Amino acid sequence: MASTVLEFRDVSVVRDGNTILDGVDWSVAEDERWVILGPNGAGKTTLLQIAAAAMHPTKGSAEVLLESLGKVDVFELRPMIGFASTAMARKIPRNETVIDVVLTAAYSVTGRWNEEYEAIDERRAQRVLSEWGLEGFADRRFGSLSDGEQKRVQIARAVMTDPELLLLDEPAASLDLGAREELVTLLGGYASSSASPAIVMVTHHVEEIPHGFTHALLLKQGGVVAAGPLAEALTSENLTETFGLSIELSEQGGRYVARAA
Ligand SMILES: Nc1ncnc2c1ncn2[C@@H]1O[C@H](COP(=O)(O)OP(=O)(O)OP(=O)(O)O)[C@@H](O)[C@H]1O
């Protein structure tokens, strides 16, 4: 049986008197690839922060990679988790070379200083770059890349350490159609590979759900509307309830389209 990578029981987060997550029960197994959908402010990023061991629940319990948050040294846990988000990207120095952006993941730092990297790490970084369509970009400055290229570098960095859990917060946000499709295709190939880790991706658009994704969690005002296999959780009815607007979902060849009914 597949091992569990995330186990949230009755997880709530309260900040400044506001309930951001409200009694979330959620379980992710190592062979599952989840998409999280929900309106602005629904609590998606907060949920991802807990999965990244970057935040503790106010109430309830969260196990990440079989370790209970609050009882484990999160600095031991975090190297096993790949996390790509805009907040993380902002910490990357604009003049850092692409190869260093990826290599520094091995030390969980951004900005190369005096660390020594082994040839094996450099080879792996080059391989990861080419897997994410970034061959020939190693010596480019991060700040000189297009949005689409920067997003792919962030994911390459997140997978560099061969994580057991990959978290992606809106990886296709702000991309043009071509860059989005390029990224969704790469993510689909990665997610479909038996060697890939468990993945949780937050997105605003069902069009961005890649092939190979298996499950969906729909969040509304901090609560779970639906969670489970895509065919059961990602339905017109559940999207309508989540977004408070009549929505019609269609699927073609494993990709999704949603519009107001
Ligand atoms: N530290 C905090 N203190 C108070 N409120 C917070 C804090 N962090 C987040 N919030 C609030 O919690 C709610 C959920 O935020 P979160 O970023 O998790 O939502 P989200 O679903 O990712 O939203 P978006 O789609 O807009 O990115 C928002 O209303 C936000 O303003």
From TrEMBL:
Keyword field: ATP-binding, Nucleotide-binding, Transport
GO molecular function: ATP binding; ATP hydrolysis activity
Annotated signal sequence range: none
Gene3D superfamilies: P-loop containing nucleotide triphosphate hydrolases
A Pfam family assignment: ABC_tran
Chain ranges of the ABC transporter domain: 6-246
Name of the protein described by the UniProt record: ATP-binding cassette domain-containing protein
